[in-house]
Design brief:
alpha+beta, five-stranded mixed β-sheet, three-stranded antiparallel β-sheet, binds protoporphyrin IX containing FE
Length: about 575
């Protein structure tokens, strides 16, 4: 199947756009061959019944039908959380939402095994939670058979539109091939000077906020602004103005706050069950507050640069996207549409900075909580005469700290996939099911939804040892500190699962790792970080965001200048 066939609508991503521009969601049976109900359109409902009555009838029939489905399907009789942890209507989803970061997945894995099932909200079929290395690898390596689940795709679409992270099949392959040159080792190495200059700017600003005596500084906006500067510079050749930074940060703040409300919890679930609900005039069902801001900025970047062949000669994201039009030699079907261009620019603007910023936040907190590790890291960085690309990538302890941070703090909690066909999934470790039988592989049906929580893969005690949940960078250096690569989660970097795996591996992982290392190195040279009294926890919103004493996107730390050598 060609990308053109995708674009012509013969096979599309699970959310299709029809000719009039409205979004229709094919039922699972249409897309995936499993049984599903088809919902009448809103206009049909209005013709036949009054609106509230038809919603009631539809809702009741739907719930009844799902209830019967649920009773029939119990994949493999896998173990599931106790009824105390399971709500009749919200399944186990509410518990997951209410708890910190991904800790509940880890707790359940400890009592139920590395593969278990949870009850989905609103009587949808059970979801299989996968924390087994071989099973996760199988799902990710076969990413065109295990596609992103519709509910998960809608989350991406509401935040960032129909970008690379949203595309499936040939469309995904095409966009991925197009953008890959912007993220090769060579391309990322060439970004080093720009990254250093943005980080130095942040360091200078931080000096004005502190002195030899510690001052409390909220590091979340400091790091986020720096990461935004970096993606602006290396991705789009653009220096974000302070008003643009303010607008993006404020929209993101709104998005995080909304994500933590009960309405924010319910909205994606309701949208996935009743796609037409987005037509209701309620703010909670609209696109994320981030989208209009980033889309407008993307439009400005695109119009300023389209046709500007003097500027757009590089391998940066914007050049590649804009040039893809002229490189297609006029073949309209082979080109990205304007919407795809804008969606990708907008998505890279957010994915290229928020993720890295959250990873650095978590690492700074770990270093503040572990002063000995912080001193050891500073000592290593001070041993090199100057910081450059070569030193940054060869510093052993810096590498170990970065790996350990990304192992324990994977930025997002989990990803979801749905099987397009029946399959047998291998397991690294056999598990016990409800009947006490040993299961050594999963025989699954098309339409089965899987959720893969990164943390379960990253803190499995059978792999990482009894201190798996502790921050111990030394494990990456000491002989035998981590098991051999074949026992670790499979992925592009260092045996941690946090960048996914297979054809949908994070395309920006090299940039992210380099950025994190440069930010840490520059900060460690000049500043010391200590904890404050504030209780800082991470909540899913929808990436794992720091909340300090309940305040969203906030990470106050005591910061002081360390004397020069
Ligand atoms: C520490 C920082 C980062 C982490 C932990 C991270 C993690 C991830 C993960 C887990 C995925 C897979 C999502 C899924 O399939 O559900 C992903 C995908 C992606 N990431 Fe990252 N990411 C980071 C930084 C970045 C950066 C800096 C960029 C770009 C400049 C980026 C761009 C992308 C894109 C475009 C995708 C979609 C790839 C595809 O579907 O082919 N990420 N990332």
């Amino acid at each position: 199947m060609t990308r053109n066939e995708f674009k012509l609508g013969r096979v599309q991503s699970p959310l299709d756009e029809n000719e009039s521009g409205t979004v229709t969601v094919p039922s699972l049976s249409e897309r995936f061959g499993s049984t599903s109900i088809s919902l009448p359109s809103l206009s049909m409902i209005n013709n036949s019944y009054s609106f509230p009555f038809s919603v009631f009838i539809l809702g009741t029939s739907y719930f009844f039908w799902r209830y019967i489905q649920h009773k029939r399907s119990a994949p493999h009789k896998l173990l599931m959380p106790t009824s105390k942890q399971t709500s009749w209507i919200w399944g186990n989803e509410l518990k997951i939402f209410q708890r910190e970061a991904s800790e509940i997945y880890v707790e359940w894995a400890a009592s139920l095994g590395l593969v278990y099932r949870i009850k989905a909200a609103l009587f949808q079929s059970d979801i299989i939670i996968v924390g087994d290395n071989s099973a996760a690898q199988h799902i990710f390596q076969n990413s065109y058979t295990y596609v992103k689940a519709p509910a998960f795709l809608r989350l991406v679409e509401r935040l960032a539109g129909k970008c690379l992270a949203w595309a499936e099949g040939e469309d995904h392959k095409y966009q991925r091939r197009l953008l890959a040159p912007a993220f090769t080792s060579g391309a990322v190495e060439a970004m080093t000077d720009d990254i250093f200059s943005c980080v130095e700017k942040m360091s200078q600003n931080l000096r004005t906020l502190t002195g030899p005596d510690a001052n409390v500084v909220d590091m979340a906006p400091v790091i986020s602004t720096c990461a935004l500067d970096i993606i602006g510079r290396v991705g789009f050749g653009h220096d974000f103005e302070s008003t643009e930074v303010k607008a993006i940060r404020s929209a993101w703040h709104q998005h995080v706050v909304m994500s933590r409300t009960f309405a924010g919890f319910m909205a994606p679930i309701l949208i996935s069950v009743f796609p037409w609900i987005t037509k209701l005039p309620l703010p909670v069902f609209r696109d994320s507050a981030v989208r209009p801001i980033t889309y407008k900025l993307a439009g400005r970047l695109l119009s300023e640069n389209s046709g500007n062949t003097n500027v757009l000669h590089g391998n940066d994201i914007l050049s590649i996207l804009v040039n893809s039009r002229s490189d297609s030699k006029g073949d309209l079907e082979a080109q990205l549409t304007t919407t795809e261009l804008l969606d990708n620019i907008a998505f890279f603007m957010m994915a290229g900075h928020e993720t890295t910023a959250v990873a650095v936040d978590s690492l700074l907190l770990e270093l503040a909580q572990n002063p000995t590790i912080q001193r050891k890291l500073r000592h290593e960085i001070r041993t090199v005469a100057s910081l450059d690309y070569h030193n940054i990538v060869t510093l052993e302890y810096l590498d170990a700290v970065t790996k350990e941070g990304l192992r324990l703090h994977p930025v997002t909690a989990a990803t979801e996939r749905i099987a397009l066909q029946d399959d047998v999934i291998p397991l690294k470790q056999a598990i016990l099911n409800e009947n006490g039988k040993t299961v050594s592989s999963l025989v699954i049906k098309a339409g089965q939804v899987f959720r893969i929580p990164w943390t379960v893969l990253n803190v499995n005690e059978q792999v990482w040892g009894s201190n798996a949940s502790q921050f111990i960078p030394e494990r990456w250096i000491q002989p035998g500190g981590v098991p051999s690569a074949d026992k670790l989660p499979h992925g592009p970097w260092g045996g941690v699962s946090s960048f996914c795996d297979g054809p949908r591996t994070c395309i920006g992982y090299r940039l992210a790792v380099l950025e994190i290392k440069i930010i840490l190195a520059v900060l460690m040279l000049s500043f010391e970080f200590e904890c404050t009294e504030a209780k800082i926890v991470q909540y899913l919103a929808p990436t794992l965001q720091p909340f300090a004493d309940g305040k969203p996107v906030s990470m106050p730390l005591k910061v002081s200048l360390v004397p020069d050598l």
